[in-house]
Design goal:
2 copies of one chain form a homodimer.
Chain A (H helix, E strand, L loop, with lengths): L4 H6 L20 H7 L5 H6 L1 H14 L4 E3 L6 H6 L3 E4 L3 E4 L5 H6 L5 H4 L1 H13 L5 E7 L1 H10 L7 H9 L1 H25 L3 E6 L7 H22 L5 E5 L5 H8 L4 E3 L6 H7 L5 E6 L1 H6 L1 H15 L4 E5 L9 H13 L3
Parallel strand pairs in A: 1-4, 4-5, 5-6, 6-7, 7-8, 8-9
Antiparallel strand pairs in A: 2-3
Chain lengths: 344, 344
């Protein structure tokens, strides 16, 4: 049996068409998602009910000819499974119990992560049986640094500055927190793969706040540790890394972490990526989500610029960041068709 | 008479020591600044009273052997002088009347900018007479895109996303707003130079939110227009550009805008800068302000990494972003001494 297009591309091979999926392809911009969401009592309950999460995962695949499904879940399930109180408040974003002392750290329980996240693995298994055989199923986790930012700051509004201060002023403590998170993330991704995920992606949404030295220590090193651990257990499963906002750091990340695919945000010029990110087997990205929201010829012209620069080598078309809630679903239809029709 | 060190460096020449100044070197971390600030009725009043602004400009030079003073002012004086209502609310940041329609645009009056900003030029003239002849005096302005973000969004909390949406959905309108701002910024910088500024810096704090295409159109092009206009009037005055968060875009910015100096934020690895930013005469930066807040040996070690990579060519030592309010003044003393003692 032929491998799925996205897997092929992540092995560094070209396929008959450029595959595409979109970060947050399941989400509030879809009316059927909003209806489904209303059935859960809160966002975590939604993530932990396999029947609902399976349906949310599959909804965009029913509408669009996307090349992959990504399990419907959230990066904060890992801190939650470690024993941290996590609450999603409407219109306010997540609020977490902070982890700022050695005592807090001792209470985190890596041992229980896989058991507590069993509903995620059941969702993956259910999606895999329903999903078209041509489509890849992607599992994911937040990267240690990004999870640490939420755990150190308690809410996302602080913008990573407090976490960065801790990474400098309490470096040993933050180092230990990162170690715990590396272990938990490996466990969570391993179980997702066992359940049926064929590709995994690491989201490092807060990679951009660190200085170059911090990026090396808190983004590159933990990511490399995770990739190595996963490759020992599942050498055949490709890993995509997404160090959002990493700018020039992407080049080192591509070389040093061992990821198969590098997802690049919209700030990175496609021409620059072509020239400087050749070390990685495949690139993913990098249309600005604002163009998808805008739609029309302007969106397709931007997509063509990216395809023109990067489509001649292994590329997974995607956004530079998640689909915005105000996006009209028809824009996704147009984009998917356009990317699939494109030829190098 | 020998040129001032910072000017020398911006001409691409090495000097006897690496010169240093710090963004927000005049500011809340200094007790004498807080005392002075209490004499003004609000922040704009503070900026517009030459006696106070002159003293604020000179305060850090009294404490530290810095190589430059930067006129105490704010980037939002330009929208204010154009006729936009600007208010600085305690603990909340600036709030502006938004400029979102053609009618709003018509009300902006470039003609009055220089007249309304006369107090800034008086401050510069006063500082120049008091400032040690060895020290350079830097004038500055916000870059058009960054000013446009504030004018389109009204407050800084929205994080540039609304402005980016406007740049895409109302491209022609935003283009006209940028044109007005180019003209106003040229006028304001020209007058600062006439009053005695020997170097000018353009702050583009919101450069990082744009995608690669937007960066080209809204950061690089207007900056080039400003640099060209200034060079026609004052060919001998160096211009420093600071496209904060621009990541890989810095390389094109360095080549295409014509700036003499490029200020780089902390995210950029010094080794990368050495390799890829050779087109510009001088670099400036790039110590993370969090290290200055931390102080001690760790701060000096980071400074040494930067000096080791970049000190062998023309460099103005600075931070990657402004001094944080919680910084202890002694840390600045230690940093300035350390940088001055360093030899390639």
């Amino acid at each position: 049996m032929r491998e799925k297009r996205i897997v092929e591309v992540l092995r560094g091979r070209m396929t008959d068409r450029v595959p595409i999926w979109l970060m947050r392809q399941a989400g509030r911009y879809l009316p059927e998602y909003r209806a489904l969401r209303a059935q859960a009592k809160d966002f975590l309950d939604f993530c932990y009910r396999p029947a609902l999460a399976t349906e949310a995962t599959l909804q965009p695949l029913r509408r669009y000819d996307l090349d992959a499904a990504i399990v419907f879940s959230d990066i904060l399930v890992v801190p939650h499974a470690l024993g941290v109180r996590v609450e999603f408040r409407e219109g306010e974003g997540p609020v977490l119990e902070t982890v700022t002392s050695e005592a807090d750290l001792t209470r985190l329980s890596v041992r229980k992560v896989a058991e507590r996240l069993e509903p995620v693995y059941r969702t993956i298994a259910a999606v895999r049986t329903e999903l078209d055989q041509e489509k890849a199923l992607i599992g994911f986790a937040g990267s240690p640094w990004t999870l640490a930012v939420y755990m150190l700051e308690g809410r996302s509004g602080v913008g990573g500055l407090e976490a960065k201060a801790a990474a400098i002023g309490k470096a040993a403590f933050v180092g230990r927190l990162i170690e715990v998170l590396v272990e938990a993330v490996v466990e969570h991704l391993d179980r997702q793969i066992v359940a049926g995920a064929e590709v995994v992606q690491l989201f490092d949404s807060w990679a951009g706040v660190l200085d170059a030295a911090g990026f090396e220590r808190l983004v590159i090193e933990p990511t490399r540790a995770i990739v190595q651990a996963l490759k020992r257990r599942h050498p055949e499963v490709p890993v995509i890394g997404f160090p959002r906002g990493a700018g020039t750091g992407c080049a080192r990340y591509a070389v040093l972490t061992g990821v198969d695919g590098l997802s690049i945000d919209s700030q990175i010029r496609a021409a620059w990526a072509r020239e400087h990110l050749g070390e990685v087997r495949a690139l993913q990205g990098n249309l600005d989500n604002m163009w998808l929201r805008e739609g029309g010829g302007a969106m397709l012209a931007r997509a063509d610029e990216i395809l023109g620069q990067l489509g001649g080598r292994p590329l997974i078309f995607n956004l530079g960041h998640g689909v915005l809630p105000e996006t009209r679903p028809e824009h996704v239809t147009a984009l998917v068709e356009h990317v699939h029709a494109w030829r190098a």
